[in-house]
Amino acid sequence: MSQQQAMQADDGKARVIKATNKPLAYYLLKQWPFHLMVLPTLLFLIVFAYLPMGGLVMAFQDFKPWLGITKSAWVGLDQFRYLFEREDSLQVIWNTLIIAIFKMVLNLVAPFAFAIFLNEIRKQMVKRFVQTLVYLPHFLSWVILGGILTDLLTTDGGLVNRLLTSIFGIEPIFFLGDGNWFRFTVIASDVWKEFGFGTVVFLAALANINPSLYEAAEVDGASRWKQTLHITIPSMVPIAVVVGTLALGNVLNAGFDQIFNLYNPLVYEKGDIIDTFVYRTAILSGEMGFGTAIGLFKSVISFVLVVISYRMAYKLANYRIF
Q1: pTM (2 decimals)?
Q2: CATH numbers and ranges of domains, the chain
């Protein structure tokens, strides 16, 4: 390096050090349009996410609406103790785990497999049509789908039961009234709705596979199945590990919108989850302290699982956000 180049390098370092030593107010004034754009979102977050956290004190109170938070009696951890003593609350936690785990596994396996099959279609028009077709249900609200499924699955003239009876001779199945069938319906309908959206992630992973690997495999005489088994699937495993580990944070989120629009008192024993249980106990029954305790319990467990899942994603697939 010449003396002139060394002087230019030193001058550049001095400028960087000088820039980093400037006060925060300098950057706020210089970039005020960007901060102004972020301000509405920040206010929305504070009003609807952080201020309501003050209500978490109800989890430690025998909360009475007419007394308010300041005058309601403190009961310490009694609400949490009551949570683990009630049989229905333990059943709700078990229901949530069963439904959420099955959703997580199938919403990982179904997009993974479908992306591989879709990638084998050679005609681009057909490929795009199929991808769009399975992608659309993701944008439908469960309010709409709940009404559609109710009409399709009813025992009184529902299309599904009519087909089962006429083709297979099976007696009508009470999909939304029998607890075991309700779980199956919830899991299957969620996978049908979301697997098209999940396929996008795996198609992106497939697009990043080096084509020369397939060319070399063809030269060696490998069939399409051998190429899929030894090139496609191993190349997709890292992103599958990331998706799977990040999904662990949602193990207690079994889908409030879906359950709320499909369930009824007949399936509370097998279909009630934490979120719907909180709604019924806190809002409908007026047990706001107990409902808040359940919600806080779920939030703490979910936070721990999110931290663990991000650490696992970093260890297993070198994936990190920050």
Answers
A1: 0.79
A2: 3-58 (no CATH), 78-317 (1.10.3720.10)
